[in-house]
Amino acid sequence: MVVPSTTPVRQGTEAAASHGGGIPTVDMSAPGGRSALSRQVVRACAEHGFFRAVSHGVPPGPAARLDAATAAFFALAPHDKQRAGPPSPLGYGCRSIGFNGDAGELEYLLLHASPAAVAHRARSIDTDDPSRFSTVVNDYVGAMRQLACEILDLLGEGLGLKDPRSFSKLITDTDSDSLLRINHYPPACTIHKIDHDDQCKMKSIVRTKNGNGLNPSAGARIGFGEHSDPQIISLLRANDVNGLQVLLPNGDGKEVWVQVPADPSAFFVNVGDLLQALTNGKLVSVRHRVIASACRPRLSTIYFAAPPLHARIAALPETITADSPCQYRPFTWAEYKKTMYSLRLSHSRLDLFQVGDDDSSNVGKGEQE
Ligand SMILES: C=C1C[C@]23C[C@@]1(O)CC[C@H]2[C@@]12CC[C@H](O)[C@@](C)(C(=O)O1)[C@H]2[C@@H]3C(=O)O
Ligand SMILES: O=C(O)CCC(=O)C(=O)O
Ligand SMILES: [Fe+2]
């Protein structure tokens, strides 16, 4: 699979810290007060649907323990890993993503984040000591839930909601449908079985000529294809290997793929489709992808914060005005999930829920493209 070359790619830069056209960065501990922080978070989510959170206050222990446990799993022999698969969509998957023919150069573990589901899945992931694996995952999920709530409360405050905790309440419900995904992208050199040094040399030559290193002839490979995350908010952390790209406005009314420089100490925050619907489009769900062309493995962990299946998703009244009428019809997360699982990864599925687009024959029909 080769990267579509129509959209240019540029490097995210430090200029981004001031929203200068790259990757916005939010210092979660910056002096200046909570209302300044909430304005910054709203601005990043409204303009980009994405930001890098630094000085976030999440202790490093749970992440280090999760990375060790998942790296040990991915290092197992293929038939041992298959015990936790095939993905249903939960469980261990290799290359295949979803049910509709999407594929990427990765293997992954997709877990429901509830302690009961983690305990059940742990039995096939860590056969030596399932409860050790469960504890490690539960600790990490707890830390992620807390960070997600903090960001969602800042958004609620910054948007001036009557109840600023409206968003975080959805993900703290005991029936929350949140997920944890661990993606392992093997080094590109071993995928091709081309000699490591030759391939790295080849890539650096093309990078010099083209500036972005994504010429298909250099072996740029789709790790995880273009998509938006369907849930409320996603928190992504990865090792020091690049690969994540986000589709951001370039200021000229066009969009460009921006490479997100790796930062293992940061969390990358994505607005999901549900948050776009809840805010009547004020916050935008960001399209992103992973190009897995590096010569070292990329390990990423993403917490997808979701509401319970029965939760009704409708634009909050504060986000609807005469100038900004309601864009999406109300739906439940269960309904949205059913639709999304019938569609390809790259589908702009929220469009199907636009007011006026009530041709229900479009929704949940098992559309393939
Ligand atoms: C092709 C698909 C995989 C996906 C479900 C879908 O039908 C469309 C959305 C995909 C996605 C993207 C973000 C997350 O990685 C994910 C777990 C999710 O909730 O939506 C995946 C789904 C998946 O891999 O099961
Ligand atoms: O693995 C990554 O870095 C991102 C993957 C992703 O976007 C996803 O799993 O939804
Ligand atoms: Fe994603």
Keywords:
369 residues; binds fe (ii) ion; Jelly Rolls; binds ligand L4NPZUNZ; single chain; globular; eight-stranded mixed sheet; metal ion binding; alpha+beta; 22% strand; Iron_ascorbate_oxido_reductase; binds 2-oxoglutaric acid; disordered C terminus
What is the gist of this entry?
This protein is α+β, with helices and mostly antiparallel strands and 369 residues long. It has helices spanning 34-47, 60-74, 78-81, 115-125, 130-158, 166-172, 188-192, 196-210, 273-278, 333-341; strands spanning 9-11, 25-27, 50-54, 91-97, 102-112, 179-185, 222-227, 233-238, 244-249, 255-259, 267-271, 288-291, 298-305, 312-313, 331-332.
CATH superfamily: B-lactam Antibiotic, Isopenicillin N Synthase, Chain
Distance between the termini: 17 Å
Mean pLDDT: 87
Largest sheet descriptor: 8 strands, mixed
Looking at the structure, what is the overall shape? globular
Fold-level CATH name: Jelly Rolls
Q: What is the domain tally?
A: 1
Q: Which percent range describes the beta-strand content?
A: 15-25%
**Quaternary structure classification:** single chain
Output the strand order for the largest sheet: 2-3-11-8-13-6-5-4
Poorly predicted regions are 1-7, 13-21, 192-217, 359-369
User: Count the helices. How many?
Assistant: 10
Q: Which ligands appear in the coordinates?
A: ligand L4NPZUNZ, 2-oxoglutaric acid, fe (ii) ion
Q: What's the total count of β strands?
A: 15
Q: What's the helical proportion of residues?
A: 25-40%
CATH class: Mainly Beta
CATH architecture: Sandwich
Structural class call reads: alpha+beta
The helix-strand sequence is EEHEHHEEHHHEHHEEEEEHEEEEH
Radius of gyration: 20 Å
Biased composition (Polar residues): 1-10
GO molecular function, one term: metal ion binding
EC number: 1.14.11.13
Keywords: Dioxygenase, Iron, Metal-binding, Oxidoreductase
